[in-house]
Amino acid sequence: MNETQYSGLTIAEAQEKLLALQGRISAYQHAVELLMYDGMTTAPKGTAANRAHSLGILTEEIYKLSTGKDTVDLLEYLDEKIKGAPDEADPKLKRMVYLMLKDIRQMQKIPMDEYVAYQELLVQADDIWHKAKEQSDFPMFLPVLEKVFETVKRFAGYCAPEKDPYDYWLNEYETGLNKKILDEFFGTLKSRLVPLIKEITAAKQVDDSFLKGDFPDYKQEKLAYFLMDKIGLDRDHVGFATTEHPFTISLGSHLDERITTNYKPHTFVSSMFSVIHEGGHALYDTGSADDLAFTVLDCGVSMGIHESQSRFYENIIGRSRGFTAAILPKVKELFPETMKDVDEERFYKAVNKVEPSLIRTESDEVTYCLHVMIRYEIEKMVLSGQLEVKDIPVEWNRLYKEYLGVDVPDDRHGVLQDSHWSGGNIGYFPSYALGNAYGAQFLKKMKETVDVDACVASGNLAAVNDWNREHIWQYGSLYEPNELLERVLGEKFDPGVYMDYLEEKYRDIYGI
Amino acid sequence: MNETQYSGLTIAEAQEKLLALQGRISAYQHAVELLMYDGMTTAPKGTAANRAHSLGILTEEIYKLSTGKDTVDLLEYLDEKIKGAPDEADPKLKRMVYLMLKDIRQMQKIPMDEYVAYQELLVQADDIWHKAKEQSDFPMFLPVLEKVFETVKRFAGYCAPEKDPYDYWLNEYETGLNKKILDEFFGTLKSRLVPLIKEITAAKQVDDSFLKGDFPDYKQEKLAYFLMDKIGLDRDHVGFATTEHPFTISLGSHLDERITTNYKPHTFVSSMFSVIHEGGHALYDTGSADDLAFTVLDCGVSMGIHESQSRFYENIIGRSRGFTAAILPKVKELFPETMKDVDEERFYKAVNKVEPSLIRTESDEVTYCLHVMIRYEIEKMVLSGQLEVKDIPVEWNRLYKEYLGVDVPDDRHGVLQDSHWSGGNIGYFPSYALGNAYGAQFLKKMKETVDVDACVASGNLAAVNDWNREHIWQYGSLYEPNELLERVLGEKFDPGVYMDYLEEKYRDIYGI
């Protein structure tokens, strides 16, 4: 060990310094997150450049605090100490040191000039993607998308030259994940989903005409607050706003969470399920143990686990027979024009209508994973060199026809619909499908000790929330996703459980 | 000059470093201001502790950046360079160095432990004041208020032992100000205001019954946006929200300004004039020259000048015959229930109704300065030792009877009404009265080149705003208040002009 300012500190003294450093970083992150939140919610529209000025300076400061020599010295000192007596070290401390060093070592492998160039490329890509989507013009997006894919592949080579590049990125978004696991996962799903969808499509369609009408914002807002209370969010710590796209963000720590929604004037269910979905993210975040606040452990461990919670509340709870019945009186009170004669069963079936479609974010529970699978197949092919970026639209449209039976009319409703690739998030999509499957397996486990159906039907989710808090939320990022799954489930991840759930639910709804 | 890292830099190089430093500080200020704004507007109510954590860390960082050794070295180096060739130095640079060094030298005179203790005292004082006001309990507030007055006096002794303590603080809030000037100023006002109020009180009162009714928030919000546009605010750079008390804040620079208002359900004029008042502050801030952004010059120079702008728009413009006539159609459209039969003259007179009352913030243009004068007399007596803090309420009530002829029923409607003393802002009140008087003198000057009445009556304030921008706004803090006044007016400050304005306007309204 080299001599540094930390040499000679006890592990407790060094731990205290590390906590202070994380507290410091979290204050800067609070500022950056709030600046972004402000930009997306209430800031006047001409103020982006003013915010960019401050964001640039504060982000650079976070980078320095997170990766500067002092920080590296402290982390390496603690790492050595922990390795010297691994059984004595506090598991939280071990995990903090591990996560912080991992980020630093990854950053050190990417040449700084290439990293900066990539950040600039992403700003440009986001801008071009917006315009290209608006004009449904993939060729406009192509040059910058090619650069994004090329950079992502190159960076994987810097960080893990021994690994397949796509495997590297899959593991970045969901530790432990790789193509082998996903091929199996999606294989199981595809083999059971495609026939299920065929059967549903052939069956009598459910009626959801009463979900359409004219629903003013102020009434949809009332429903949003009602739902926030209903799923058990603590509104003293969870704020609410409207934005172009719904999202969830923690400001500073899990003690201040914000969710947003977007009202569509002709259907109240879009915002309704957005609120429950974002509410699920917020429940996970705010359920973090209080002593994790202002540390790197104070956030969900992965996108997959995060989506398991948001989609658990949105679909498994929110689209259940019990929950839809529990909220129906409020829905009727707010929207009597179309809802007054609708009974519990019709409402339940309507919000679960299955219909193969073009847009992932608007798709139903059954077809959703096929949308994800198409993106997975394409990313896999591009990163392995089997598909050129310029040929993505043709392959996209072919897969939509094959998996979902729909014809893509233009790139706007096809390959340009998602923002992920312009943001460099390649390898991110699979976590959505994984989240669905994790959620179903959590449900099965939960049912061993909680009468979930009775709890949901009662309209009080306390028992469900307590189970999630005890088994998942409180740990923040303490355990890797696969480690957490095994601790919670006592068994390996099994996508068959998710398919069992879907088949049982939708065979009942469609009488097949 | 001592050797530092800056020795040998050209003045241009050092100036560039100073600009970068100010840009850095402004990013931190942006974060701190936005955190406070969020707390006062949309943050969930249980999140104050989370915000305090980040505010503490970021505020400390601003302190270090503003007063650290590197900063002092840079400023002193520039100061020497400027003194070596005073005529060659850029006036903006000179002023930045002067203002930044002034703050540092003041901070250096106050022992750090006493400064920290005072900050803690103010947090406590604010909390106790809120409770004491609610319960109308001055004795509850007394011990902490005594400490605030004692500390303020002690700090004046540290910073300017040669000066009278009240003169020191008056000069801090408005450079160049002292008791001698204010005694003269208030003497003039009092000698003409008291008889004027007597005549008005004896005259036939104007009818303002139609200003009362039931006015829903969403309609008052429409009026607020209408007024923002009407007075010429650029809504691409000026945001709007509702809060308990109206205020104006710049976020990061003059490029992102926010104003707030508060709706009273039974009168629309309260929010109406709050919007115009805060809008006046925002016009001043956003009118700053763009090259002042991210420097210490990018803000109004003093409270007095700031209030001159806010009260100019609120009263001189907003309560003028021309402006009230110009907005009346919109007011009738929004509030036909009480306003449909009201003509221009009745509306004009109603919003200018004079009535001696208890609360400063709700008082009319004529009696307003008397409220301020009472606070001035009390602060002066306490700081000179002529009045003990415990005896303030008796003196307060006596002065309200003497100046305004009203009986103070309890401390809540008396000495506990304002937050300023609990915030340590002793010497701040006079700027409100000065602002009124500055505004009248600006109006007189403006009328030499602008047909103000025609401009206001046309409902388009462009010519008025252009004059203010050219003569006042663009300079930010470049000139001291008295320097700015003389540049704008070409003559000394003369409170008689303000009295002429009031007498002319109110003799006409009351037919006296």
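The longest helix of chain A spans residues 11-40.
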